[in-house]
Design a protein that fits this description.
Elements: E1 2-6, E2 27-28, E3 31-32, H1 33-43, E4 48-53, H2 57-63, E5 71-76, H3 82-89, E6 97-102, E7 105-107, H4 111-121, E8 125-131, E9 139-143, E10 149-154, E11 163-172, H5 186-197, E12 201-204, E13 209-211, H6 215-228, E14 246-247, E15 252-258, E16 261-262, E17 267-277, E18 282-284, E19 287-293, E20 296-299
Parallel strand pairs: 1-4, 1-6, 4-5, 8-12, 14-16, 15-17, 16-17, 17-18, 17-19
Antiparallel strand pairs: 2-3, 6-11, 7-13, 8-11, 9-10, 19-20
Length: 300
């Protein structure tokens, strides 16, 4: 069993953070999100990973060189293929059962427990679900008493419950034949077809999950990890205890910090409270609840 990591998104809603950085390479507590995803897979014994790439693919292929004891292969999309279309394009690399993981999200899903649920169920695909306070932003899933999917509601305008699709799947390769080559998504295109022909198993995750699609969610995930010390599969951030801040290598601070995260090679001159500094930025002003980037300040 191997895994495919979706890492090709353009990240338009995250601009200007993604002007010159693919979403999976944005840092959470000074560590690229992609590292969290790869190390999560490794932690659960998955050492064969396929990356679907599109936007600035070389930055991800270069990063993959640091992943010890992991077989990394790449499928580059020349045009947008959608989540399912991109995986189908990479099918030559995939095992008969494989995980689909998101390179631009953050979670602590137990992939081992999810795999057990999948194989015990006999279903061709298992979807990890979780509760959300903002379900209308995601795909809401209705589940029956046996843990099987009854219906999907993609970004519903009316309330359909608060159980949402995390975008983490374990599936049988045979499902890739359900649709021809082309631009398709899992939730909108594949899963409705599967429901007509088979069952879809669910695995409920009650831990942390954040779909990092905008600056606010990116900011929130950084400070979640800062406060909680990371996950078992990633090194814990080095905290300066006196002010609960994280300062990257070769960065300089002239002023006061209160719960801040400063990337490598940054300069921070001023007084800052709950601020995030990325991309070697040079800041000479006070700030609170803000992201400082080389392309400007994002006030939250």
């Amino acid at each position: 069993m191997n895994a495919v990591i979706l890492a090709g998104g353009f990240g338009k809603r995250l601009q200007p953070l993604t002007f010159d950085t693919p979403k999976p390479m944005l840092k959470i507590c000074n560590i690229p999100m992609l590292d969290y995803c790869v190390n999560q897979a490794k932690y659960f014994g998955i050492n064969d990973i396929v990356f679907t790439l599109a936007y600035l693919p070389q930055k991800i292929t270069e990063r993959s060189a640091i992943y010890d004891n992991v077989r990394c292969r790449f499928s580059i999309e020349r045009e947008p293929m959608g989540t399912f279309g991109g995986v189908k394009l990479a099918q030559e690399f995939l095992d008969e059962s494989f995980f689909v993981l998101s390179g631009d999200g953050l979670n602590n899903i137990d992939l081992g427990a999810m795999a057990k649920s999948h194989f015990d169920s006999g279903a061709p695909v298992t979807i990890a679900l979780t509760k959300s306070d903002t379900p209308w932003l995601y795909g809401v899933v209705e589940v029956d008493d046996t843990g099987k999917v009854k219906a999907f509601y993609e970004k519903p305008r009316e309330y359909r419950g608060n159980i949402v699709n995390t975008g983490v799947y374990l599936m049988d390769k045979k499902l890739l034949s359900f649709l021809p080559d082309g631009c398709y998504d899992f939730a909108k295109d594949l899963f409705p077809l599967v429901l007509k022909n088979a069952s879809i198993n669910t695995y409920f995750h009650d831990g942390y999950w954040n779909d990092i699609g905008n600056p606010k969610s990116y900011f929130d995930s950084n400070f979640f990890v800062l406060k909680n010390g990371g996950f078992p599969w990633i090194k814990k951030p080095c905290i300066i205890e006196k002010n609960s801040s994280l300062v990257g290598e070769s960065s300089r601070v002239d002023g006061l910090l209160d719960e801040c995260i400063i990337d490598e090679n940054c300069i921070a001159k001023g007084n800052f409270k709950k601020c995030l500094f990325v991309g070697g930025v040079n800041v000479e002003e006070d700030g609170e609840n803000a992201i400082f980037t080389p392309h400007g300040k994002i006030q939250l």
